[in-house]
Design a protein that fits this description.
alpha+beta, 5-stranded antiparallel β-sheet, globular
């Protein structure tokens, strides 16, 4: 089935993702909320009520297949998974990323890291290497990354959905949970291998030992699980940064 995406981890376990977001969540910032007595607001309330009903049904459906799932404990698990993702991305740990994100996101990150490595190699000729064969620190071209330092407020589940890809008889069922994660992050510069480069992180406002700036960024994450996965491994299928506050902006 060409729609079913698979890849193998180092220990031989195969994982599958749907390749689609069943019901993309529509986020409306507070400043764009409709007037309380308007027709638009009435329509929004009706749509919200329908969405809550769908979430309740999907929550029960997911739990029927994934006994460990609970909408009460999932927000904390989502924050832990998000932090692990940020750590793996910062260090360039592709093996860990395989178990944290779906294939589409992983492919994009691998291309990004490969492009960074290629650019670093072109900009660091052999003449710039030290005696031990490694580039001098002054010759290393850093890339920007994030280090999660905390959360502004607890994560919130926005909606829960489930769906099927292909024939139901084949068991291609998936659960998806959309979560709002509001993290506080340190902006760091890292070199090849994900090592933080202190000299590249000097700013006028020093926030920690690396001299980094700090930002608060809300993110909408869609977590997905294959309902027939014996390990019930939730992976990030979509990441949407919806704004930031601090020393920089990132969308």
């Amino acid at each position: 089935d060409s729609i079913r995406r698979r890849f193998s981890l180092a220990h031989g376990i195969q994982m599958r993702s749907s390749g689609v977001i069943f019901d993309p969540y529509q986020y409306f910032p507070e400043e764009s909320q409709p007037f309380q007595l308007s027709v638009e607001n009435a329509k929004k309330k009706i749509a919200t009520a329908k969405s809550v009903m769908k979430s309740s049904y999907s929550s029960a459906f997911i739990q029927r297949h994934i006994s460990s799932f609970s909408h009460h404990t999932f927000p904390d698990a989502a924050q832990e998974k998000f932090t692990a993702f940020m750590d793996a991305y910062r260090t360039g740990d592709v093996n860990s990323l395989r178990g944290l994100v779906t294939e589409g996101i992983l492919e994009g990150i691998r291309k990004e890291l490969k492009g960074f490595e290629n650019n670093a190699a072109k900009s660091n000729p052999k003449s710039a290497k030290g005696k031990v064969g490694r580039p001098k620190e002054s010759a290393v071209i850093p890339r920007s990354a994030f280090e999660v330092t905390g959360f502004v407020r607890p994560a919130t589940i926005l909606q829960m959905r489930h769906g099927f890809v292909g024939s139901h008889a084949k068991g291609n069922g998936y659960g998806q949970v959309t979560v709002l994660v509001q993290s506080q992050r340190a902006v760091v510069m890292v070199g090849p291998g994900g090592a933080v480069i202190p000299s590249a992180n000097k700013t006028e406002k020093v926030d920690d030992k690396h001299g980094t700036s700090t930002v608060e960024i809300p993110s909408i994450l869609v977590f997905e699980v294959a309902l027939d996965d014996p390990k019930a491994n939730w992976r990030i299928a979509r990441i949407e940064e919806i704004g930031s506050r601090g020393d920089m902006e990132r969308k």
